[in-house]
Write a structure and sequence with these properties.
10 helices; 8-stranded mixed beta sheet; single chain; alpha+beta; 5-stranded mixed beta sheet; Immunoglobulin-like; Neutral Protease, domain 2; 4 domains
Length: about 650
C-alpha cells in the first residue's frame, strides 16, 4: 500500500499580497449575512402577517384523492398555539383555484372571510397568547398541473399503463393543494394524512400506515400517521394502482431489529422485475448512512418510496416520491432523511444544509458501497460542474429567494455540486474522519426534529475541528468562485515551491490545505501537504530523492483549477524586483504580486517574443493587475525593473 507522509516545512515566506481586509470584502459581498442575522419571525412578501400569530403543532389531512386527476377534496385540521398577544384573525394559505366550503374555529363555524391573493383570512373571536387553537377547513378543487414546481401533478405511464397523481410542495406549493402555513421554522409536532381513493388504487404518505378502512362505497381510506416533527413541504401523497414491495434493513444500532422499507410501485410484475435489484440497494445505503450519520432518524416508522412520473425525486419524510430507482437517486433522497427532513434548512437561503449534504451523502454511498473509483468519478464531476462558471455562491442571497425563482434555490451547480464539493474540502481540512463524522452526528443530535442554517452547522462542527471555521465559511460558503493555481518549483536537495493562487470571482482568497504528489525519478511517489493562506506562498520540503514531476490534489479532495506547474530555477527572492504572477496562462487579466514591497517605484513591461514592447505600467504597492484582453494568444515576457534590479518571467495568453 501507498503511505502518505507530511514532510517538515522548512521555510514559509510571508505573503507578498499582505493581509486583505476581510471585513471590507464582506461588507460589499451580498452573500454574507449581517452580524445580527436571524431566521425567526420571517414571512415571505406574499404572506399575510396574521400567519405569524400562531405556531402549528399538528396537521390532520382527511382528503379524497385520485390517480385520474389533480382534484382534491376533504378537510384539513390545523392545531396550533397562539404566539401573538392576541389572535383575532386566523390566516392560512390556499390558492384561489381551491374553494373553501366550511371553516370551523375552536368549534364555532365562521362564514365571513377575506381573500388576499393566496392568503385566506377569517376574523374570529379573540384568543390570547399561549392558548391552544384548532381550525377545520373543508375545501375542494383541482390545482393546476404541468410544471415541475407545482403542488399536484398527474401523468400516465405508458410502459405499465398506470395513471398516477402526486404532490410536490417544495418550496412554496403546499398551498396549491391543502390549507397550510408555509414557514420553514414552524414544524408541526406530528401529522395525520388520511387518503381516500378508489378500491383499485393505493395512496402512500408519511409515517406508519396504521389502517386501511373499507368505506363500502367502492373506496377505501389509507390512514398514515407521522409522529415525528415535520415541515409543511414534506407532507405529501401519491396515488396510483400500486403494489406494496416491502423489504427490511438492519442498521447495526438497532441490535438486530428490522427497519421497514415500504415501496409503493406500479402494480405490475414487469415493474417489480425491472426495479427489484435497484430497490434492494436501499437496504445497504440506509445501513451505511446509519453508521456514518447516526441511526436512521425515523426508525420507529419506516423508509419508503412512492413511484411516480416525477423527473427525479422528492424527499418526503419517510416516503420519497420518486421517478426512478437509480443508485444515485435513491442515495440522494435517502440522504435527505438526515439532511433536509430530520434537520431542515431554516431559510431557503441555506438550502445547502439540505441539498449539498444529500449530494455528498450520494458521494459517500459511492465511496463506501460502490468503491473508490466510482467515488472519484462522482466528486470530480461535481467539482468540474461547480467550476464550469466563474462566479456563484452556495449561500443563496435573500433577494434571490422569491416566488418564481425556484431554480436559483435549487441550482444544480451551486446548491448541489459546489455544496457537496465544499463539504468534501471541509472533510479534508479535518484530516481526521472520526472527528469529521462525529461532528455530523453532533449536528444531527443538536438540530434533529428542528431547523438549522449554515451558521448552525459551522458552530456544530467547530468543537470537533478544534478552532473556529469563520474563514472557511466566509470564503467557501458565502464567497463566490473557486481558486486557480500556478505553481513553480525547483529541486536542489530540497523541494522548493512557489504556490500562486488567484480566484475566478470576487472572493480574493480561498485558504485551504493542499495535497501535492511528488513523483520521483525512481518510480516512487509520496504526498506532501501545505496550507495556502495567502495569494502567494513559498514552501520548502525536505526530500532526498530526485524529483520527476508534481501533481496537485491527486485524489480530488479540494476544488481548484491548476493552470500551470512549471520547473524553475533558484531565484534571488531578496531581489527588490522579485515577483510572482498568476493566473498563468491568463485570459483577460493577470496579477503581479511583489514580495519586497518597500515603497519603491517599479516599472512593469510586457514584450512579445520578437522583443517588441507591448505594454508598460508603473507600480507602487504590493500587487498590480493588468488588463491583457487586447493581447493576441501567445507567449510573452513580463519584465519588472526597480533601480538596477530586473526580474523577467514568461506569461502565456
Amino acid at each position: 500500500m501507498k503511505q502518505v507522509f507530511t514532510f517538515l516545512i522548512l521555510t514559509i515566506s510571508i505573503s507578498v499580497f499582505g493581509q486583505y481586509n476581510t471585513e471590507s470584502w464582506k461588507s460589499v459581498c451580498s452573500h454574507v449575512p449581517k452580524p445580527d442575522y436571524k431566521t425567526t419571525d420571517y414571512l415571505y412578501y406574499w404572506q399575510d402577517p396574521n400567519l405569524d400569530k400562531y405556531d402549528v403543532t399538528f396537521y390532520g389531512l382527511d382528503i379524497e384523492v385520485t390517480s385520474a386527476s389533480t382534484y382534491v377534496d376533504g378537510t384539513v385540521t390545523i392545531k396550533a398555539n397562539v404566539t401573538a398577544p392576541v389572535l383575532d384573525t386566523f390566516a392560512f394559505e390556499l390558492i384561489p383555484a381551491m374553494n373553501v366550503d366550511q371553516f370551523i374555529f375552536n368549534g364555532v363555524e365562521y362564514t365571513n372571510w377575506i381573500r388576499k391573493d393566496d392568503n385566506v383570512l377569517y376574523p374570529v373571536n379573540p384568543v390570547n397568547q399561549g392558548s391552544e387553537i384548532e381550525a377545520k377547513i373543508t375545501y375542494h378543487g383541482a390545482p393546476p398541473a404541468g410544471n415541475f414546481f407545482t403542488g399536484v401533478d398527474h401523468e400516465h405511464n405508458s410502459t405499465y399503463n398506470k395513471d398516477v397523481t402526486w404532490t410536490l410542495s417544495e418550496p412554496f406549493n403546499g398551498k396549491d393543494w391543502f390549507p397550510v402555513k408555509q414557514d420553514l421554522e414552524d414544524k408541526a409536532d406530528s401529522a395525520w394524512i388520511f387518503l381516500t381513493c378508489d378500491n383499485d388504487e393505493m395512496a402512500g404518505s408519511e409515517g406508519i400506515l396504521t389502517n386501511v378502512v373499507d368505506l363500502n362505497n367502492g373506496k377505501h381510506r389509507f390512514e398514515w400517521k407521522e409522529k415525528y416533527p415535520i415541515d409543511y413541504y414534506l407532507i405529501s401523497f401519491a396515488v396510483s394502482d400500486y403494489m406494496d414491495y416491502s423489504i427490511y434493513a438492519h442498521p447495526a444500532a438497532m441490535n438486530g431489529d428490522s427497519l421497514l422499507i415500504q415501496n409503493f410501485i406500479y402494480n405490475s410484475e414487469q415493474c417489480l422485475n425491472n426495479n427489484k435489484t435497484k430497490i434492494d440497494k436501499t437496504k445497504q445505503i440506509i445501513e451505511t448512512y446509519s453508521d456514518l450519520f447516526s441511526l436512521y432518524p425515523f426508525y420507529e416508522e419506516k423508509y419508503g418510496h412512492c413511484q411516480t412520473e416525477l423527473g427525479g425525486g422528492m424527499e418526503h419524510q419517510t416516503m420519497t416520491t420518486i421517478g426512478g430507482f437509480s443508485f444515485h437517486l435513491i442515495a440522494h433522497e435517502l440522504g435527505h432523511m438526515w439532511f433536509g427532513d430530520n434537520v431542515t434548512c431554516a431559510t431557503w437561503q441555506d438550502i445547502w444544509v439540505n441539498e449539498g449534504f444529500a449530494t455528498y451523502a450520494d458521494y459517500l454511498a459511492n465511496e463506501k458501497i460502490l468503491g473508490w473509483s466510482n467515488a472519484q468519478s462522482f466528486i470530480k464531476s461535481a467539482q468540474n460542474n461547480a467550476m464550469s462558471q466563474p462566479g456563484g455562491s452556495v449561500y443563496v442571497p435573500e433577494d434571490e429567494v422569491y416566488q418564481g425563482n425556484e431554480w436559483r434555490i435549487f441550482n444544480g451547480r451551486l446548491s448541489y455540486n459546489k455544496g457537496a464539493a465544499i463539504i468534501h474540502t471541509l472533510r479534508h481540512e479535518f484530516q481526521n474522519d472520526s472527528l469529521f463524522f462525529a461532528g455530523l452526528q453532533a449536528y444531527q443530535a443538536q438540530y434533529g426534529g428542528s431547523t438549522a442554517t449554515g451558521e448552525d452547522f459551522k458552530h456544530a462542527m467547530e468543537p470537533f475541528y478544534g478552532d473556529n471555521l469563520d474563514w472557511f465559511f466566509d470564503e467557501w460558503y458565502y464567497g463566490e468562485g473557486y481558486p486557480k493555481y500556478n505553481i513553480e518549483w525547483y529541486y536542489n536537495g530540497n523541494l522548493h515551491i512557489t504556490s500562486v493562487q488567484t480566484t475566478s470571482a470576487s472572493t480574493p482568497l480561498f485558504k485551504m490545505l493542499m495535497d501535492l504528489k511528488v513523483n520521483f525519478t525512481d518510480g516512487t511517489d509520496t504526498i506532501v501537504h501545505y496550507f495556502q493562506d495567502n495569494n502567494v506562498n513559498n514552501f520548502t520540503f525536505n526530500v532526498n530523492k530526485e524529483i520527476a514531476s508534481l501533481e496537485v490534489d491527486p485524489d480530488n479532495w479540494t476544488m481548484e483549477k491548476v493552470e500551470s506547474i512549471t520547473v524553475g530555477v533558484k531565484e534571488n527572492e531578496d531581489n527588490p524586483a522579485y515577483f510572482s504572477i498568476g493566473p498563468n496562462p491568463a485570459s483577460d487579466y493577470v496579477t503581479l504580486f511583489f514580495k519586497n514591497n518597500n515603497g519603491d517605484n517599479k516599472t512593469v513591461q510586457i514584450f512579445d517574443l520578437t522583443g517588441k514592447k507591448i505594454m508598460e505600467r508603473y507600480v507602487k504597492g504590493s500587487k498590480k493587475t493588468l488588463n491583457i484582453s487586447n493581447l493576441s494568444k501567445g507567449i510573452y515576457m513580463v519584465k519588472v525593473k526597480t533601480g538596477n534590479n530586473i526580474v523577467t518571467k514568461r506569461l502565456m495568453k
